[in-house]
Amino acid sequence: MDHKSFIDSLIFEYVNTFDVKRACQLESEGFPPEEAFTLERFTYIQSAALTLFLGAYLSDSSSTSFRKLSLIGFIMSTLADAPKFTKESMSYHNPFGKTVCIHTICVDKLYRRRGVALCMLKEYIMRLKNESQNRDMNGKYERIALICHEHLIPFYQKAGFILKGESEIIYGNEKWFDFVLEL
Ligand SMILES: CC(C)(COP(=O)(O)OP(=O)(O)OC[C@H]1O[C@@H](n2cnc3c(N)ncnc32)[C@H](O)[C@@H]1OP(=O)(O)O)[C@@H](O)C(=O)NCCC(=O)NCCS
């Protein structure tokens, strides 16, 4: 399948309760153990912030009788009050927060470097803007914030995020960098 047909075949849907385990499994394959979220935290975020937990799915061609989708990547966030990514947002979703804190962007190893993550982020940003438009002034999202390791700085720059410098957050063993995208 060529690149365009592959990207066009991606289906974006919010991650339902049945796929939370699969998302958690993808994360544990993609992150070192000291950085990965537990299934409990995934379950909490899925129930508290469903429209901030977006999956990229491929149609499973081996299934003939009904449409079966397999999860190959996802983005998961919570809302926070602070204007940049906070450690508290990793365990607490503030439904009145204005900052969308992205905790995880993860793509199945089998499908990396094929544009899935960039495409997923584009869809995610578009959905946040649309959702925000339908909220009243007090409920609007103002920005997306995240932290990443140094080697992924070019990835987030490609997606339109602005590098704010080294983060104060200590989590796992490596340095983190702050990124923000104003909505
Ligand atoms: C980071 C991750 C989500 C990228 O997913 P992906 O679908 O492979 O990314 P894309 O194909 O959309 O990448 C687009 C561009 O970003 C950059 N990029 C992506 N992954 C990169 C990596 N591991 N190192 C350096 N640059 C990278 C490249 O410029 C790439 O373009 P190119 O392939 O033409 O060179 C994926 O590698 C992953 O799941 N990693 C493990 C979890 C993780 O570290 N997530 C980020 C948390 S902050």
From TrEMBL:
Domain N-acetyltransferase as annotated: residue spans: 10-183
Pfam families referenced in this protein's UniProt entry, alphabetically: Acetyltransf_1
InterPro entries registered for this protein in UniProt: Acyl_CoA_acyltransferase (IPR016181), GNAT_dom (IPR000182), SNAT-like (IPR051635)
Keywords associated with the record: Acyltransferase, Transferase
Gene3D superfamilies membership: 3.40.630.30
Gene Ontology CC terms: cytoplasm
GO molecular function: aralkylamine N-acetyltransferase activity
Protein name, entry field: Acyl-CoA N-acyltransferase
Organism: Gigaspora rosea
